[in-house]
Design goal:
About 30% of the residues lie in helices and about 15% in strands. With about 270 residues, the chain is of the alpha/beta class. Strand 5, helix 5 and strand 6 form a beta-alpha-beta unit.
Length: about 270
């Protein structure tokens, strides 16, 4: 199987959008945000559908620097526990200021443990429009709805419950990532997103919510993972990789150390400066 995909930041809505998917072989890619509006066809719903979804292209950017402490926390919260002892989905919040590297951290987790999940769903949760769009697309892929002209539009109130039901009775683990879920603080604001409505609550399902809001900690009993500034050594390595520096003497390393310190050891700032 061959699979490739590019990643770019979507300035209008926040979050991340994936395009340029190329795949060969029998594997299927399931990414909620690969297409826009979906319409419903006359095909019968394939509620008993069983498929394998290959998301090997969901990987960190090439200059990603491993953050072992944070990575271990995600692993211990999701990967290590015995799912047979769970009555509900395992929900983990990964939160921190913008540019700290939350999404890259989760992508690194997916890259390492993707073979341990039967299906991986990446949902752009930065706005109501994107999260609803992605659930409709996931619904269309799972239940065989095609984008036939003249057919009725799939309603989000139909798509979300159907996607959540799809997880019931399945063997093995599935992973759902709700990325950039930042609008979760004020339920009176028009941009507010009720994450509870979208999250599956089925044993064997792991849910990761990335957010700038510390309110994300309150959606789960699991200890949240806070992504803050990088360790000095991690920040230095990221600068070197971003600047494509293969070798650096002690004087250069000291200068890099001063630069990353000035940048607050923030992952995005270092990447842009490198």
């Amino acid at each position: 199987m061959a699979l490739s995909m590019s990643l770019y930041e979507a300035p209008a809505t926040g979050g991340h959008t994936y395009h340029n998917i190329q795949i060969s072989g029998n594997a299927r890619v399931l990414l909620g945000n690969t297409v826009g509006q979906a319409t419903e066809s006359n095909l019968a719903a394939r509620a008993d559908y069983v498929g394998h979804y290959a998301n090997s292209s969901l990987r960190p950017v090439p200059n990603y620097v491993l953050r072992p402490g944070l990575h271990q926390k995600i692993k211990e919260a999701l990967h290590d526990p015995d799912n047979d002892q769970e009555d509900n989905a395992r929900i983990l919040a990964v939160y921190g200021l913008g540019g700290m590297g939350k999404s890259q951290l989760v992508l690194n987790y997916i890259q390492e443990y993707r073979r341990d999940y039967q299906a991986i769903f990446w949902i752009e949760a930065g706005s109501k429009e994107t999260i609803e769009r992605d659930y409709i697309q996931v619904y269309r892929l799972l239940y065989g709805r095609q984008t036939d002209a003249g057919q009725g539009i799939v309603k989000v109130e139909d798509a979300v419950p159907a996607v959540k039901r799809w997880f019931q009775g399945r063997n093995g683990r599935c992973l759902v990532v709700l990325d950039s879920a930042d609008n979760i603080d004020n339920n009176q604001h028009e941009s507010y997103i009720d994450l509870g409505y979208f999250m599956p609550d089925t044993p064997g399902v792991h849910v990761i919510v990335t957010s700038r809001s510390s309110t994300a900690k309150e959606i789960t009993h699991l200890e949240a993972v806070e992504v803050a500034e990088m360790e000095a050594s991690e920040a230095t390595e990221l600068f070197k990789r971003s600047a494509k520096m293969t070798e650096a003497g002690q004087d250069i390393l000291r200068e890099i150390g001063d630069i990353v310190k000035e940048l607050g050891c923030l992952a995005l700032a270092i990447t842009l400066a490198g």
